[in-house]
Specification:
Shape: globular
Number of helices: 13
CATH class of one domain: Alpha Beta
Oligomer: single chain
Structural class: alpha/beta
Strand order of the largest sheet: 3-2-1-4-5-6-10
Radius of gyration: 20 Å
Helix content: 40-55%
Low-confidence stretches: none
């Protein structure tokens, strides 16, 4: 038995692949385009593992997809492949349209053809699990109830709009063609192997480098924070027990403003790796101009997945953030490797010289 995982060298995808191969006997075919955030070094511990088959390629390459499906005959496909950073989508939306919409369409077409060719027993067991985001739901007011699976889509960035479009395609292929799909919407993930353009790893990396810690606007944008390994366990639960055609929201029950997150990171670094001058890393916090259309609040109601599938997160924010900061302190070589010249140039463009 085999799984096909797309985007399995990225942050969430690589954590899923590592966790799956550590806990299950099934092989994984891992297809990744290796853009800036896809990193084969995330998978270095799997070198020589016969159950991990890495393929460098694009979900938009229909010939490659068709060949992989025909050769490896996976019982399920898990689609992590996506352009996923809001800031980058504002600066260059074209790549988000190409990967998240056109790429998902290409993937769906190849899976539909493959699924249609299966014998009835295999066909009934096959699943496509599409990993999406809470950002498709838009922004919440301070007193609004958290996003449920019934919340209407109101995407506000090119990124979230492209993910919303991909969700609609997945839904349409289920209702039109009967393709057995499952969709998950997660809140903000954090943890090991996170490319340091997102808030938490950026703060950890910049703090140690003595650089400013850039905070958008007033820093009071609220997000629900989900430890990545909890997200991976939720995906396993949905794949195993989820009802075909259903959507499951995955959250950490940890709503916190961005500034509080930055303070938590600084305080942990003060404890675990204090500055030589004894001053708190909080002194490096710098407020920068807010990004266009910045959603004020996201919050996930993860009641359905707990009620229907028995899943809930293991980590609190306090335990998860400590593990995350410690991981970055323990892996300076990984951090140095991902900080290419192109990445440094992008950070300078986005946050000034921060």
């Amino acid at each position: 038995m085999t799984l096909l995982v797309t985007g399995g060298a990225g942050f969430i995808g690589s954590n899923f692949v590592l966790d799956w191969l550590a806990a299950a006997d099934e092989a994984i075919v891992n297809l990744d385009k290796l853009t800036y955030a896809g990193n084969v070094h995330n998978l270095a511990s799997l070198q020589g593992n016969q159950r991990h088959i890495f393929v460098h390629g694009d979900i938009g390459d229909t010939a490659l997809l068709g060949a992989l499906l025909a050769k490896h005959r996976p019982r399920a496909v898990i689609n992590f492949a996506a352009e996923s950073h809001v800031d980058r989508s504002i600066l260059g939306p074209g790549a988000f349209i190409e990967t998240n919409i056109v790429g998902t369409f290409a993937l769906l077409e190849q899976i539909r053809a493959y699924w249609g060719s299966l014998a009835q027993g295999e066909k009934s067991k096959f699943r496509l699990l599409h990993v999406s985001t809470d950002e498709v739901y838009g922004s919440l007011g301070a007193q609004d109830s958290a996003f449920t699976e019934e919340h209407r889509y109101e995407p506000n960035s090119p990124y979230s709009a492209s993910k919303a479009a991909s969700d609609h395609l997945v839904r349409a292929y289920h209702h039109t063609y009967g393709l057995p799909v499952l969709t998950t919407h997660c809140s903000n993930n954090y943890g090991p192997l996170h490319f340091p353009e997102k808030l938490i790893p950026l703060m950890i990396v910049n703090a140690q480098a003595g650089k400013p810690l850039p905070v958008y606007g007033d820093g009071q944008q609220i997000r629900d924070w989900l430890y990545v390994k909890d997200h991976c366990s939720a995906i396993r639960a949905v794949l195993e027990r989820g009802q075909v055609g259903e959507t499951y929201n995955v959250g950490g029950w940890n709503e916190k403003p961005n500034l509080e997150i930055v303070h938590s990171v600084c305080d942990l670094l003060d404890e675990l790796k204090p500055r030589a001058d004894g001053v708190s890393y909080r002194q490096q916090i710098t407020y920068v101009t807010d990004r266009p259309g910045h959603d004020r609040r996201y919050a996930i109601d993860a009641s359905k997945i707990e009620r229907d599938l028995g899943w809930k997160p293991v980590e609190t924010f306090e335990t998860g953030i400590r593990k995350t900061v410690q991981w970055y302190l323990d892996h300076p070589d990984w951090v140095a490797q991902v900080q290419s010249g192109a990445y440094r140039e992008w950070v300078a463009t986005q946050y000034g010289q921060a």
